[in-house]
Write a structure and sequence with these properties.
InterPro entries: 4pyrrol_Mease, 4pyrrol_Methylase_sf, 4pyrrole_Mease_sub1. GO terms for molecular function: methyltransferase activity. The chain is α/β, with parallel strands linked by helices. It contains 11 helices and 10 strands. A 5-stranded parallel beta sheet has the order 3-2-4-1-5, sandwiched between helices. Strand 2, helix 4 and strand 3 form a beta-alpha-beta unit. It starts with a helix and ends with a helix. Bound molecules: S-adenosylmethionine (SAM).
Length: 268
């Protein structure tokens, strides 16, 4: 088999390890991790770290030292981009490897690709398995009918719209209302305000699920479901994603259905 570096000539390649590195790393991603001079990785998962280091023992370098309590996440993202660019400037072929999908809630990876291209480097991002992909599988969620997804703090602080007839996913629920990075539990003051905001759409008793996909083979997902009003007492972890199932059915657009003669098909 030809090495990936013969097929494509990216100077920056951005890959994801999936949520469970043992099993969700694609063959293409493995080849890129091997082919890179520097593999800059972001994962707190010791197994994923071990896999990356074993694939490229000389080039692997963790970026986790750039995170810190009380440090704004935005500052960390800027530092990640700077370190990546520094290795590109030194002439290295760089692979950024992050957990999950590298383009899902991962500002620094998108920015690194943009910056690299703007400076004339060839750069590309590969898709990977995100936490949402695991959630669809483990909770049996089908996006048919619509799925809205927000970062929880962004949803809380802005006038975002919800259609309660859609599935709703809220990322980073454990850190809602917090802009810094914490290694264990975040302060939970935002959770109560978020609950109030959601209750305006769903009422107090609609079920909500806190979900954690397994990072290790043979481990079951953590799935906790309860009424929305209990959410402030739930202490979600930094790895939790919240899922809210649809409340009721979508309102039919009678006018369009009538125009297209599709009343029966759409509403059946
Ligand atoms: C910065 S985002 C990274 C998302 C990641 N790039 C992806 O593709 O899934 C961190 C958030 O992803 C979600 N997440 C990360 N690991 C997870 C897991 N094991 N199970 C469920 N959600 C997870 C949580 O919402 C967490 O707060």
């Amino acid at each position: 088999m030809r090495p990936v570096s013969d097929i494509h000539d990216e100077q920056l390649i951005v890959v994801g390890t999936g949520i469970r590195a043992t099993g969700q790393l694609t063959i293409e991603t493995i080849a890129w991790i091997r082919a890179a001079d520097k593999v800059l990785y972001i994962t707190a998962d010791p197994v994923a770290e071990e896999v990356i280091r074993s694939l490229n023992p000389d080039g692997a370098e963790s970026l986790m030292d750039l995170y810190g309590s009380d440090k704004l996440r935005l500052d960390t993202y800027a530092d990640i981009v700077e370190r990546t660019m520094a290795y590109l400037h030194q002439g290295h072929r760089v692979c950024m490897a992050v957990y999950g999908h590298p383009g899902v809630l991962a500002m620094s990876t998108h920015e690194a690709v943009r910056r690299a291209r703007a400076e004339g480097f060839s750069a590309r991002m590969l898709p990977a398995v995100s936490a949402a992909d695991c959630l669809y599988a483990d909770l049996g969620v089908d996006e048919f009918g619509g799925c809205i997804s927000y970062e929880a703090t962004d949803f809380l602080l802005n006038m975002r719209a919800i259609d309660p007839a859609c599935h709703l996913i809220l990322w980073q629920i454990g850190g809602v209302g917090v802009l810094t990075y914490e290694t264990h539990h975040y302060p939970l003051q935002g959770l109560e305000r978020l609950t109030q905001k959601l209750m305006a759409y769903y009422g107090p008793n609609h079920p909500v699920t806190l979900y954690e996909a397994p990072q290790f083979a043979g481990v079951e997902p953590i799935i906790g479901t309860g009424p929305l009003c209990q959410l402030p007492h739930s202490a979600p972890t930094p790895n939790a994603t919240m899922y809210i199932p649809p409340l009721g059915k979508a309102q039919p657009d009678v006018q369009v259905q009538w125009e297209l003669g599709m009343q029966t098909q759409v509403t059946a």
